[in-house]
Amino acid sequence: xxxxxxxxxxxxxxxxxxxxxxxxxxxxxxxxxxxxxxxxxxxxxxxxxxxxxxxxxxxxxxxxxxxxxxxxxxxxxxxxxxxxxxxxxxxxxxxxxxxxxxxxxxx
Length: 107
Fold this sequence. Notes:
Elements lengths: L1 H29 L7 H12 L8 E6 L11 E11 L9 E11 L2
Helix pairs in contact: 1-2
């Protein structure tokens, strides 16, 4: 039971970190003056915000409909996905996908 509680705590932490990383990446992206740099900017921000997670299992996608024609009010979409690997593989031995998608309007 104790190992299950510890595992649940780590999994909850990783889900909250994924959610926060997606939110931070979207916030930074919507105020960027160059919409064409949003994919790179959102990835860098999400990776920097995802402290405590293994970046090898973290995937970040940031997009704006058309960077050359982007205008105020267009939607920026940032998706952060993470594959959580259990700490106690002998007991649970599984991976769990965690993902968060945030949409915000350009300023």
